[in-house]
Amino acid sequence: MSARPDTRTLWVFGYGSLMWQPGFPFVEARRARLDGYARAFCIYSLHYRGTQERPGLVLGLARGGTCDGIAFRVADHDAPAVRAYLHARELIYGVYREATVRAELSGPGQPETVNVLTYIAETGHPSFAGSLPLARRAAIIRAARGKAGSNLAYFAATLRKLHELGIRQPDLERLAVCAGVGGPFAETAGPSVLEGRSRACANRKGCKASAVRNDRRHAFSYRRRLPA
Q1: What kind and span of H or E run contains 180?
Q2: Taking the model in full, what pTM does it have?
Q3: Nearest partner of 199 among 152, 156, 155, judged by Cα
Q4: Are 177 and 138 within 8 A, CB to CB?
Q5: What is the pLDDT along the chain (228 residues), one digit of tens a residue?
């Protein structure tokens, strides 16, 4: 992080939990589209939605495609604190890379293109899961829990927000059906129901995910050159 303050307007692009739980003050939230990256369950979670012994799966921005999400505009006086908060929340093991990219905002009038701060999957990191088979992803999500709760609850909250925004993503909808949170269930199931389903699956044979080797000391040694 730079020691010099950034005087430009700060926009933060949310595509996963930041959409429904930003955790920072903002003055405006707008639907936005990012080109060149797609939302995917491609990150092993060892902290918030899983553990070292039973990793979960969370969303990351993988190269290629497009991603619709929410861009949050932060007041200038809040920008340093928001950057610090996001740095502490997202950059735990180095599997996410903080990046500034271009996004198109939608809304009344002509579309507007702005720079947004977001978090891109670091493909060289041990916690980068890549494109796992559908059944494997579903089994991991059903069984994993971490500091912030069950992986199922994370997925269901994301599905609810995407539905609220009118964003369709067929691959996530297929995964939701396979994981058991598709359709109306994702809209109505409370945290206790999801937690119970997650615990039940964790106790079944065949749901356990392999441990992921990771080390905070080398969190930023896996970086690869981003495409121009």
Answers
A1: none
A2: 0.82
A3: 152
A4: no
A5: 333 333 479 999 999 999 999 999 999 999 999 999 999 999 999 999 999 889 999 999 999 999 999 999 999 999 999 999 999 999 988 899 999 999 999 877 777 999 999 999 999 899 999 999 999 999 999 999 999 999 999 999 999 999 999 999 999 999 999 888 876 666 666 666 566 565 556 656 555 555 565 655 555 566 666 655
The residue to which tokens 């009344």 are assigned: 108
Domain boundaries, the chain: 10-208
> Could you write out the DSSP letters of every residue in 185-220?
HHHH--HHHHHHHHHHHHTSTT-PPPP----GGGTT
CATH superfamily assigned to domain 10-208: Gamma-glutamyl cyclotransferase-like (3.10.490.10)
Tokens found for residue 126: 């041990």
Long-range contacts of 18-24 (CB under 8 A, 24+ apart): 18/70, 18/72, 19/69, 19/70, 19/158, 19/161, 19/162, 19/165, 20/157, 20/158, 20/160, 20/161, 21/157, 22/72, 23/85, 23/89, 24/72, 24/74, 24/78, 24/81, 24/82, 24/85, 24/86
Query: What is the chain's length?
Result: 228
> Alpha helix locations (H) across 91-211?
134-143, 151-165, 170-179, 184-188, 191-202
- Active-site residue list: 90
